[in-house]
Design brief:
The chain has 110 residues and is of the alpha/beta class. 43% of the residues lie in helices and 11% in strands. It has four helices and three strands. It has helices at residues 7-17, 34-47, 64-79, 103-108, and strands at 21-25, 51-55, 89-90. Strands 1-2-3 form a three-stranded parallel beta sheet, with helices on one face. Helix 1 (7-17) packs parallel to helix 2 (34-47). The radius of gyration is 15 Å and the shape is globular. The protein starts with 6 loop residues before the first helix and ends with a helix.
């Protein structure tokens, strides 16, 4: 898609303003595409302490073994990039997959 502004620059600008930066990886989508990871890597250069990684839609990834495979794939891709290979990861368990808006919980713990 074409926009009247540079999307990457806009996201980097928002990253400068944000207290926390949530990165959501979609097990079905294109979350691991080069453009996304390049942008996350740039955000990490200035704001490593603010970035939190999450696996969204974990309940759509199939059984527990499928979710673990997806998590391993994402982790392997992150580890290929020196700045991103140190992060923890949040993956909701299958008992709480439909809990809405847990961002406030994350904000309280930081």
């Amino acid at each position: 898609m074409k926009y009247a502004f540079d999307v990457d620059d806009s996201i980097l600008w928002l990253g400068d303003l944000a207290d926390l930066i949530f990165v959501f990886f979609d097990p079905i989508g294109q979350a691991l595409c080069k453009r996304t990871l390049n942008l996350v890597e740039k955000l990490n250069e200035k704001h490593a302490d603010r970035i939190r990684f999450f696996l969204s839609k974990a309940d759509t990834a199939g059984h527990e073994s499928d979710r673990q495979k997806v998590l391993m794939q994402i982790t392997q891709e992150l580890c290929k990039r020196p700045g991103l290979n140190k992060a923890g990861f949040e993956m909701p368990d299958n008992l709480h997959t439909h809990t809405v808006r847990q961002a406030s919980k994350m904000c309280q713990s930081n």
